[in-house]
Amino acid sequence: MPRRALNLLKWSQQSQSYELSSSKASAIHEIIPESQAWREWLDTISSFAFHSRCGMRYTVRKEAVQQNGSYWYGYRSWQGRTSKRYLGRTSDLTLARLEEIANNFTAEAASRAGQSLSSTEPLLISRLHPPRLPLGLIERTHLFARLAAWRTYKLTLLRAPAGFGKTTLANSWLAQQQKQQAISHLAWISLQASDNDQLHFWRTIISAYQSWQGEPGKTALTRLASAFRPPFAAVPLETILALFLNDLAKQAGNSILVLDDYHLITEPRLHEALSFFIEHLPLQVHVVILTRNEPNLPLTRWRAQGYLQELSSQDLRFSTIETATFLELTVAASLSAAQLAQLDALLQGWAAGLRLLILAGKMEQAGIERLLSGLEQQQPSNSFRQQLLDYFISEVLDAQPEALQRFLLQTSVLGRLTGSLCDTIMDGQNSSEVLETLELSGLFLEALDEAVRAQTSTILPWYRYHALFAEAMRAEAQRRFGEERLRTIARQASYWYEQHELADAAIEAALQAHDMERAALLIERFSSGAQQIELHILQSWLAQMPEATIDAHPTLCLYAAITLQFQAEPAHPSHSNRTRISALLQKAEEGWRSSGQLTEVGVVFAFRALIASLRETAEQEAVENASKALNLFAVEPGENHIRPTTWQWRTICLGIVGTTAMHQGRFEESQQLLLEALADCQTDGNQEFLREICLRLGTLYQILGKLYQAYEYFQRTLSLGLSQRDYTDCQRALRGLAQLSLEWNDLDAVEQRIHEALELMEQNNQERREDIDYLLALLSFAHGQNISAQLRVSALLARLQTTLIPAVQELLTEVLSLQTRLQLDAHDYLAAQNSLHLLSSSAHELSFGQQMVLHILQVRLLLAQGMEKEAIALLAQLLPVTQEKQYMRGQLELLILLALAHATCKQKAEAHKWLYKALSLAYSEGFLRVFLQEGDAMAHLLRSLLPAIREKTVRAYGQAILRALLSTDAASTPPVSLNDNLPFEPLSGQEQRVLRLLLAGYSNLEIAAELIISVNTVKDHLKHLYRKLGVSNRREVRKAARNLKLS
Q1: Torsions phi, psi of 312, nearest 5?
Q2: Do 490 and 510 meet the contact criterion of CB atoms below 8 Å apart?
Q3: Least confidently predicted of 829-838, 939-948, 988-997
Q4: Residues near 1020 by beta carbon (within 8 Å), at least 6 away in sequence
Q5: Which residue has the higher pLDDT, 808 or 35?
Q6: Helices 935-945 and 952-966: angle between axes, nearest 10 degrees
Q7: Do the beta carbons of residue 918 and residue 895 sit within 8 Å?
């Protein structure tokens, strides 16, 4: 169990103050932080825990530094690493300093979580915890009582117009829940319009949970950072959410997630994803949504299912009694019954209106009464909102000194204010003091609970005006100063934001200033570095720019094309979008060519290749564009290597060209390209591409007959996928490993891999199991259970033939091939001919390997029909092709069929020649299934060949195959080592390294550490090692190694 801190200093949302507690000193709560008693107490302790306003927790420790006395440091452990921050001496240990270090740790946590932080992230901290509770808070007991039943529901919905107290009610109620220790963690998200993006939205939510013990969702955060992996398959968002939900389900204690201002979310896909999330919530997590209108969620169904409790504006509006109580608490005002009735008729329980009325009345009863009297004389048609806007000008603004009026009007253009920024706008030096004075005077300015560290050593406190007050000031500023002056202010703000590395704010201010050229240059500048601008934000900026500005900037042309391609369905953009994308890319190419920026021209071709790869019928177009890009990436003048910013584009192109080469049978070229892509992935740390390339290399080496290398790549993918919790890649790796075990005739291992894949599928709510059903059919066939295999194949085909997913269509070809083989074994030649005809009709779409399987099936049909001469003639045509392409699996099967065909024709010498050649090629990699599947005919031929084989290794290998064929359960009996004291198959390089360490006395854990692999991988190597040596434990390994002179 984790140790509980003896001393704790934490921010209390309920009391709006810091509270001190200790398990040893009962009276410690009386000590006030930063007082003399506080400093004396610090001298007596060595450490305490600190919980900041934003929920960050870390440990504060005192350390002696040689002769210089003691210093305090902050420590936080996260993702297996401990971070340390210097706090100072005891005299430096202020609340502000403690909060500063908390913000520092929060920023570090967001960075480590694998997020591609946009330039607005320094402002993120304030969005991840509730706002300050206002003064004059009245306890709404009847509403608290209704909310108390939250554990019964999945969702609480607070729906009311602006200013009805949704946020305040939720905030105060949750503060009560925390005080009562009813919840262990509160995740509060203040949503913005910029959150209308799947990745941004969920990244923010999961980030809010990183301060909960165990940091649930940290793997999901990493997956979100690269959720789209062009040109490879996109990771389903549901898969990532399942990772997060599974983490939440493991947490101890209850949690509430609050989504404030949900009405700002308009993206339909976000509503769908949130619906999925809410419907699969674990019992200990509850969601609260605060919104001005009814969200586009399945509320009707949830009401019927009992998932939902709701509060509306009717529930939230202040009663007359609550209005009177509020006035007494805030301004000690006691209005008459008639005045309260006037207020109720005027405001109709609108809490924000009441607060504004108090401010407008200068916090005095007489002022409120005068205002009520004035409002009563206004035209009835004039809304209270407009009356307040007018009042702010005539009674508030006009009453201020001229200098302060200018300050209020000009700074109202800014969404948020800080002293340095206002100095720039006002050309002054005392804006910080002005802001502090305005806040203290209650002049519609509030301090935000955040301290933003820009790219300087300065901590910047931020403020904002009340929304209605800012609206009135902006309208008056435009009237007094004119539009041009407001644009100048926005332009000045843009330069300030740029200097402080607040990229998004700098760009948005430039757009507000209608300075499109500056906005374009800023986008180019900030996008060329490490920052990645999110597509939905980029799209909103480009939508504000004239087409001429975009066309004049190649970078913007490329970005505009990217946003158009991926704003809806990437594989199927509309005709008008395709036309516009093509034109934009052409302009980008021409612009970069004219300036000699050839690397950027390469990016254009890479994106064209990516677009083509998304269309199933444009493989050649994708390859041509990818090849052009690869030729351009390394030839920019003055550069002799590719720039880091283009690594990912280069990897995409290598993947496209390498995969196409593999499909077309150019295996040597494919190997070179994919290995180069692998090196790129390892250079730039792209884990998504790394797993994908490892999978493709595994498939390639399987085709080339290099089974042990294929095993290494599949096992590496599995280890990476498990550690990074990419279960889709894990299942693909498990399929590859299962097929290798099938080739080695280790049917128990095949079954184990299938079981592992099923477990992963169930754990992550995945529904597609076609790959698993295909493996089960192969396993049944290997066990000789042909009827069971045929039933599985028939059921699987019925599902696959109604699915249009490309990956499923590829599997369809393999399943049809297996069906044909089963039909041939059942002597149903007419059905086999029909299946072959179906495969042949789409032969132009098949890969080289699939075409070769088709031809081999045609050979088998000829042999089954007694047409040996025709079969031999076809085999003679096919064999040189597989030899030239180094397609080992196909070559072995062709050699074996040639041998069997000649044996049927009583041509013993020819039969022996071809079978011996097959054995000579296959023994080093341990192929078995390719021989065993031929049954009695192979056993008869092999028995006659073995006496003539002189090479000990080949003879031992043949004897192992024969033993397996003649065993009582040939399908499931794994081969063993045989005569001549030789293993029937040699050890791979990695197995030899494992053997040397094992003989040296290393444990499994020590072997894993030495070879930098997982313990599970070590166990797999040992399993194969034992099988090859014909032993069952380490002692027998030592004996076998001595006999074989391996030690």
Answers
A1: -115, 180
A2: yes
A3: 988-997
A4: 711, 715
A5: 35
A6: 140
A7: yes
- Which residues, listed in sequence order, are joined to residue 12 by a DSSP beta bridge? 17
Virtual torsion, Cα 779, 783, 788, 793, nearest 10 deg: 40
Which residue's entry shows tokens 């975009």? 550
What are the tokens at 910? Answer: 């020819």
- Rounded Cα distance, 629 and 613, in Å: 14
Asked if 190 contacts 259 with a C-beta cutoff of 8 angstroms, the reply is: no
Q: What is the pLDDT of residue 458?
A: 47
CA 50 to chain centre: 31
The reported pTM is 0.67
What count of residues does the chain have? 1047
Q: How far apart are CA 179 and CA 11, in angstroms?
A: 11
For residues 718 and 690, the answer to whether their CB atoms sit within 8 Å is no
Residues 6+ positions from 444 with CB-CB distance below 8 Å: 359, 392, 396, 465, 466, 469
CA distances (Å), origin 636, targets 2, 594, 639, 684, 825: 55, 13, 6, 20, 60
pLDDT digits 0-9 by tens, 581-591? 999 999 999 99
Which residue do the tokens 């009520």 mark? 372
Beta partners for 70? 64
Residue 385 has a pLDDT of: 66
Do residues 921 and 931 touch, judged by C-beta distance below 8 A?
Answer: no
CB 758 within 8 A of CB 265: no
Query: How large is the average pLDDT for residues 44-65?
Result: 80
* Cα separation, 753 vs 712, whole angstroms: 15
Report which residue type is found at 154. Answer: K
The tokens for 217 are 């969702």
Q: Which domains does the chain have, with CATH numbers?
A: 7-110 (no CATH), 121-316 (3.40.50.300), 320-377 (no CATH), 999-1043 (no CATH)
Angle, helices 198-207 vs 218-225, to 10°: value is: 160
Note whether 556 and 542 are within 8 A (CB). Answer: yes
Structure tokens, 965: 């064929």
